[in-house]
Amino acid sequence: MVEVIQKNKKWIIVAAAVLIIAAVLIFRHAGSGSLNEGTAYVETVENLTGQNASLGMINRYSGVIEPQGTWSVTKNSDVDVEEIFVSEGDEVKEGDVLFVYDTTKYEEDLRQAEIDLERLSNEYDSTVEAIAQLEKEKREASSSEQANYTVQIKEQNLSLKDKELDIEMKEAEIDKLEDNIGNAEVKSGIDGVVKKINEGGSSSDSGDNSFITVMKVGNYRVKGTVNEQNIGDLYVDAPVIVHSRVNDNTWKGTITKIDTDNAVTSEGGNFMGMNSEGSKSTSYPFYVELENSEGLIMGQHVYVEPDLDQGEEGISEGIWLPSYMVDQTDPDHPFVWKDSHGKLVKQEVTISEVREELDKVKISEGLSPEDSICIPDPSLSVGMKTAPMSEKPAEEDGQSGDEEMNEGGEAAAPSQTEGTSSVMEGLPEAGEEPAGEESPVEGEEGVSEEAGDIPQEGGAGSGVLDVVGGQ
Fold first, then answer.
1. CATH code linked to domain 61-68+219-306
2. E-only strand ranges, 198-342
């Protein structure tokens, strides 16, 4: 009996020691401050909305003022230009003469064509007379000679048709030459400013070989750029507000096109946001038609933001957040996961307005731009350690699928840490007596749980004037 009691005391001491060691490991793991495990990574509200407090809480996109369109003319390479009457930067009106062709060659060709036409006409008349003569002789000839006259008449009729075709072609050539001479003066098709004169005739990098290009003036449009991560915030026919970068002036307009077929490229030929390590993001141009362009100048840089009825003073109360940042499982008590002195807390918020077309909600109470929050996730818990998103380490080898990118381009908060595995073998279950003199950590499989383990959820168009054989 004494021996059995001593054995039981031995098992109790060993089991207590193992449990103490496991508790210490769990405590150290929970309080170690690791940025890889057990940490919720947060981002400030002002960064998540894409703007700092001075610019408002609605995403803004960079843009530049450009003309509504251009008009261009391609020079006829078969003839020389006699004189150019404009220079780059000159203002022109519709109908103003831009340049004139040297028509000397056309005038010479016209004189020769008129001579050729007269010769063909004479040959045609002679053939008609010949046919009439053969028909007369055929009527007076004997029956044995009739067949010979019939063959000659058919041949002359075929020759007559050839002459008719030659005359038609020569008349068309004369008409074109006369038209070219009459349109030697090339005139502007729009009111605008001469943007380019390509006297050398070489093509640009974009393949444009226009001789003279005129930019339309009076009405401007905005060419903006949106990142692929925010492109869902914009749509065709969406109202927008255009902000000056130098003062408080604003203009209203409407998005007319989002050009997803032409990504914006950098100077090095890579897409915007890409580096040598691979693709990060891509940007696309979009275009805004303005209600009026008074006060704007060509090439001026501006900001473009969706018009959410914020008016000239901006949104005075509330913050517009992507709807996925707010946990609305309980519609009566929506909340966000917010940082509070390095710990994660649930912060109930008030949603005063929902814009489904923009996938955004307006928070009128419960948050400020300086607060830091993270994307809701089932693995989050109150009291979890927090850290700024900027301190999040790179994904370690062997780990994947733990991060998701939000629409703002920031990584979503990772799931909570997996607890320290403390699978202990050899510990007897309650009431089980150890067998023989075997080591207490061998032979038997005990029951244990993984500490803290929380399950995770899986261009502008151009009008080309067709004159003087131009293309």
1. 2.40.30.170
2. 212-216, 220-227, 239-244, 250-258, 283-290, 301-306, 319-322, 335-340
Q: 254 near 239, Cβ under 8 Å?
A: yes
The string of pLDDT tens digits covering residues 291-311 is 888 888 888 999 998 887 664
The reply to whether 61-68+219-306 shares the fold of 33-58+314-418 is: no
User: Which residue has better confidence, 438 or 199?
Assistant: 199
CA gap 318, 465 in Å, rounded: 55
Phi then psi for residue 245, to 5 deg, are: -90, -10
What one-character DSSP code corresponds to residue 233?
G
- Tell me the mean pLDDT in the region 346-366: 86
Sequence spans of domains, the chain: 1-30+419-453, 33-58+314-418, 61-68+219-306, 103-183
Q: How many DSSP H helices and E strands does the chain contain?
A: 4, 21
Per-residue pLDDT of 95-129, as tens digits, reads: 999 999 998 988 999 999 999 999 999 999 999 99
DSSP helix/strand/coil, 61 = strand
CATH number of 33-58+314-418: 2.40.420.20
- 228 band by pLDDT with thresholds 50, 70 and 90: confident
Model-level pTM? 0.39
| Helices 143-182 & 104-140 angle (0-180, nearest 10) | 160
Query: Does the pLDDT value for residue 225 go beyond 60?
Result: yes
Is residue 17 over pLDDT 70?
no
How would you write 119-171 as a 3-class SS string?
A: HHHHHHHHHHHHHHHHHHHHHHCCHHHHHHHHHHHHHHHHHHHHHHHHHHHHH
Phi/psi for 257 (5° steps) reads -160, 140
User: Residue 323 gets which letter from DSSP?
Assistant: G
Helix, strand, or coil here: 288?
strand
pLDDT attached to residue 372: 93
DSSP-derived 3-state class of residue 6: helix
Instruction: State the alpha helices, DSSP H only, in 317-445.
Output: none
